[in-house]
Amino acid sequence: MGSVAANVAELDGSKFNITRSTNLRDVPLPGSPEELSHSHCTDHMVTVKWTAANGWETPEVKPYQNLSIPPTASVLHYATECFEGMKVYRGYDGKLRLFRPDCNGERLNSSSQRSSLPGFKYDEVKKLVAKLLQIDGPRWLPNPGSFLYIRPTVIGNGPHLGVQVPKEALLFIIAVPWPDFTKMKKDPEAEPRKGLRLYASSPDTIRAWPGGFGYAKLGANYGPSLQAHGKAQALGFDQILWLFGPDRQVTEAGASNFFIIWHNTEGKLELVTAPLENQLILPGVTRRSVLELVRERLSQNFVGKLAPLEAVERTLTIDDIEKASKEGRIVESFVSGTAYFITPVAMIQNENTDINTLGANGEPAGYAAQIKSWLEAIMFGKEEHDWAYTIENEEK
C-alpha cells in the first residue's frame, strides 16, 4: 500500500478542499481540432502536495490551471516523474465508471517509488479521480457510450537543486477529451486497413533492460523513445515494436502491449505475450484483463466459432514470429492498452522484411474483437462486473 513513514500524513481521498471554476471552458465537439489536440482539459483538476516532513496534505479540487514550479525543481533536472493513463466511461445506464482503478493506483504507487518519489495508499487514487469526475463528468461526459482520458501524475517539484531524493512532490490529476478513433470518419479514398503496421526497433535502440525501469510508467521511458517512434511514423507505420537482446525478443509496442495468437510448433493454439518477470515491459491493466478473460472464458470451450486456446506469458523473438508467418501458423495478433484499447496488427516490418500477422485468409480471426466486446460490456455497464468502479453522483 506504499511506504510512508508512520509519523506523517497518509494520502486520504475522503476529504477535499474544493474551489469551483467561475469561467467554464468550452466542451469540444467529437472529432474537432480541440479534441484531436489531446490538450483541451476539463474545467477542474486535482492536486495533492507532499513534503518529507509532513506527508500528504488535504487534496484540492481547483480550476484547471498551469502549474508553478521553480527552475530548480527535481522533475526538470532528474526526471523524478511518473504517470498513469486511465479512462472514465459513461455507461448506457447513465452511470460513470472507472475500469480497474486500483490496478492503476497500485502501478502509480510502484512507479512513484521507482522514480524516488513518495509512496501512498494506492486505493485512495480512485477516490481522487471520482471526486474530479463528480464535478466535471455531468458537463463533459453527457452521452452514454463515451469516455474521457484521465492522467494522474506525480512530480518532484521542490526547489532543491542537487542529486538527492525529492523533499517535495505534487500529485495532480487532469481529464482530457479523447478521440474515439473507431468511430471517426475514414477517408473514402484511402485503402482499407485491417490492422496496425508495426516497425521493429533496430538493434542499436533499446527501450528497457533487466534491472532498469521498463516496468514503471515513467516519463523517462518515453522521451528517449519518441525519436524512434517519429521515424516509424514518417515511414508510414503506426508504432514501434520494441525488441531486446541479441535474440531480438519481442517486448511491447510503443504505446501498447503486444499479443499473438498462433499454433505453436507442436500444433497447440496459444495466445502469447511477453512475460513480466524480467521487468522489460509495462504491466498493462488491459494486458492483465485480456489474459484473465481468456483464461476464464476461452481456455476450455468454444465461443461461437472461436476455438479454445491457452494464454501463455513467455519470451518470444521476432524470428519466432517470422517463422510462424511463413509456415501459416499465425491466427491473429493485436495490441492492448488504454489509448489503443484492443487493435489488430496487420504486419510487422523487421529489417526490410514484411511479416504478415493476419490469419491465413488475410483477416483477423475474431479473437481480438471478442475480447474487445467483453471489455466494453464491463466498461459501459452492459455487464455487472467487479472490475467496474461506479462513481456516485455528487451530493448537492
From TrEMBL:
EC number: 2.6.1.42
GO biological process, one term: L-valine biosynthetic process
Catalytic reactions of this protein: L-leucine + 2-oxoglutarate = 4-methyl-2-oxopentanoate + L-glutamate; L-valine + 2-oxoglutarate = 3-methyl-2-oxobutanoate + L-glutamate; L-isoleucine + 2-oxoglutarate = (S)-3-methyl-2-oxopentanoate + L-glutamate
InterPro entries with a match to the protein in the record: Aminotrans_IV, Aminotrans_IV_CS, Aminotransferase-like, B_amino_transII, BCAT-like_C, BCAT-like_N, BCAT_family
Gene Ontology MF, one: L-valine-2-oxoglutarate transaminase activity
Cofactor list: pyridoxal 5'-phosphate
Top-level division of the source organism's lineage: Eukaryota
Protein name: Branched-chain-amino-acid aminotransferase
Originating organism: Penicillium rubens (strain ATCC 28089 / DSM 1075 / NRRL 1951 / Wisconsin 54-1255) (Penicillium chrysogenum)
